[in-house]
Write a structure and sequence with these properties.
With 580 residues, this protein is of the alpha+beta class. It has three domains: 251 residues, no CATH class; 155 residues, Alpha-Beta Plaits; 105 residues, EAL domain (TIM Barrel), CATH 3.20.20. It is built from 18 helices and 14 strands. The strands form four sheets. Strands 5-6-4-9-10 form a five-stranded mixed sheet, sandwiched between helices. A hairpin with a 4-residue loop joins strand 2 and strand 3. Helix 1 packs across helix 5 and helix 2 packs antiparallel against helix 3. The N and C termini lie far apart (108 Å).
């Protein structure tokens, strides 16, 4: 019987988590390759084991001792079935086997047949293990025969010439047991070391704890093999029965330990599943925090973090990148006319077109509303301008929404690093300035020019706040009555737009109206005023109050060829007659 962290005489399939072939094969644990010198050691063991087994077979044949050999063969085969696996995990395995003790019994009782007996046990072991790896199978077939042959050689050299079984016979048996263990475990450890690329000393240290037990059990087998005639049946049973009782006891506790290990593994699996679920949940939250829910593009926070990352990677050198800020024209008109669902579809389609015409390494972000940001790492002014024109050309293709073809226009502002700054906030602000320059000049795109940046940071902030106020209905209309001098009656109203800022209070019209005209927001403002005035007119008519409402429009609105169609659609939407 033997106790080891691997079966006696066998190269472990899981302990090393490797394979023994030059081909890369999948195993439950890992995929490794045996080096060239490992193959040399492997085939040396195979040849040595086969030579020992064949030599043993020839000697048995010459001595015509086949009938004497069969009891030992049956004993070692039975020992293979009586092995006890204490526990096994993906990396470690501890088991008790009678195969080593049985082979050592044959070493002292029938030395010429011992290697052949060990070979027979190896064949049975590999059949039970159903190995398919040819190299591992050959090693596990030959290694026990080689170790047993070494044990026989040690025993024959140390055994005294005198008959019987004395102290020197016991010393010879001990030498045979040590030789068997050294050859068997040494060759296995060497193969594990080479296949797993671990130090041989580490492998020996991990399995060395079983050496005293294995040597002791091997010595027991050798003692019984050499002294069974002197001990007789009763004396032999005195040694055999405790071993069998120990085997049954080990089997009992091994089953209990295996159940406990299975329970712990199940609990560990549940814990890993919970950890994985929590990690997925945290990843989902992180994704939601850094991405736009409508388009699944990165948001403003992600874009800023990406620019910071590029600056950090650049180190002492200035990072070269371009930031494109894109704003859709007439998006609010489309939203008001066709509804927010169509507006969302429009944004998704625009996002897809942006993705199709940009490089893999470029970053596209939705900054809010109808604004998109595009980060182009390594771009200069020429490549950034080309990318912007590619985007504008892609957006020129008509979109089909609600059965109608819509043309989408956009304005793009370009800021470059390090020319216009390396700070994310500065680049965003300057790209925003360039974008409004493009809107004002109807040039579709513009590169940031300091000459056009006459606005203070507070002024630029006011531009963004006005823009959000228009989009989010943050404005109000005051209705100034029109009174007839002849009759003194109210004959109509004039809608006057006012902006009640949440922090600044009422912003005077002479401050935000020029701001809207200079930044390209005047048309969006005009559309908002028309829509709100018609909504109020509809409410008055529903209350049986019929008052004409007039609105003030910018000259840019009057130059818009699409203004009549817009007014007609809004009149139809609110069911208000043009004469009202």
């Amino acid at each position: 019987m033997s106790c080891s962290s691997r079966p006696m005489g066998r190269y472990p399939a899981r302990r090393s988590r490797t394979t023994l072939t030059s081909r890369r094969l999948k195993t439950p644990a890992a995929r490794t390759t045996l080096p060239l010198h490992g193959h040399v050691v492997l085939w040396a063991c195979v040849v040595g084991g086969l030579v020992a087994a064949l030599t043993s077979a020839v000697e048995v044949y010459r001595a015509e001792a086949w009938l004497d050999l069969w009891p030992f063969v049956l004993l070692v085969i039975g020992a293979e079935f009586l092995g006890v696996r204490i526990y096994e995990t993906g990396r470690d395995r501890i088991s008790f086997s009678f195969a080593g003790a049985s082979a050592m019994l044959a070493v002292t009782a029938m030395p010429i047949g011992a290697p052949l007996v060990a070979f027979a046990g190896s064949v049975v072991h590999d059949l039970l293990a159903r190995r398919r790896d040819r190299a591992r199978m050959l090693f596990n077939l030959s290694n026990p025969s080689l170790a047993t042959g070494g044990a026989v050689a040690a025993y024959l050299m140390l055994r005294p010439a005198a008959s019987g079984f004395g102290v020197m016979h016991l010393v010879a048996a001990l030498g045979a047991a040590v030789a068997f263990y050294a050859l068997n475990s040494g060759s296995i450890s060497l193969m594990v070391s080479m296949s797993s690329r671990r130090s041989l000393a580490v492998v020996l240290r991990e399995s060395g704890w079983s050496a005293p037990i294995n040597i002791f059990l091997g010595l027991t087998g050798a003692f019984l093999g050499g002294a069974h005639e002197i001990l007789g049946v009763i004396g032999t049973m005195i040694f055999v029965v405790p071993v069998l009782i120990m085997r049954l006891t080990l089997d009992f506790y091994a089953r209990r330990s295996q159940k406990a290990i299975a329970t712990l593994q199940a609990l560990n699996g549940q814990l890993e599943a919970e950890i994985s679920q929590r990690q997925r949940f945290e990843e989902t939250l992180e994704h939601q925090a850094l991405h736009d829910p409508l388009t699944d593009f990165p948001n403003r926070s992600f874009l800023r973090a990406k620019m910071d990352e590029l600056v950090t990677e650049a180190g002492d050198t200035e990072p070269r990148l371009a930031l494109l800020l894109l704003d859709l024209d007439r998006f609010k008109e489309i939203n008001d006319t066709f509804g927010h669902q169509c507006g969302d579809q429009l944004l998704q389609e625009v996002g897809q077109r942006l993705r199709d015409c940009l490089r893999v390494g470029d970053t596209i972000a939705r900054l809010g509303g109808d604004e998109f940001g595009v980060l182009l790492p390594g771009a200069d002014v020429e490549s950034a301008t080309r990318a912007a024109r590619t985007i504008l050309n892609a957006l020129q293709q008509p979109l089909l929404l609600e059965g109608q073809e819509l043309e989408v226009a956009a304005s793009i502002g370009i800021a470059l690093s390090p020319v216009h700054g390396s700070d994310p906030d500065a680049l965003l602000r300057r790209a925003d300035v360039a974008m409004y320059v493009a809107k004002r000049g109807h040039t579709r795109l513009a590169v940031y020019d300091p000459e056009h940046d006459h606005h203070s940071p507070a002024h630029l902030q006011l531009v963004g706040e006005l823009r959000r106020a228009i989009v989010n209905d943050g404005l109000i209309l005051h209705y100034q009555p029109k009174v007839s001098f002849r009759t003194g009656n109210v004959i109509g109203t004039e809608a006057l737009v006012r902006w009640v800022h949440p922090q600044r209070g009422i912003v005077p019209p002479d401050e935000f109206i020029p701001l809207a005209e200079n930044t390209g927001l005047i048309r969006a403002l005009g559309r908002w005023v028309i829509n709100e005035a018609l909504r109020q007119s509809r409410a008055w008519q529903d209350a049986d109050l019929f008052l004409p409402v007039s609105v003030n429009l910018s000259t840019r609105d009057l130059l818009d060829a699409q203004l009549p169609d817009l007014v007609a659609r809004l009149l139809d939407r609110w069911n208000v007659a043009p004469a009202a």
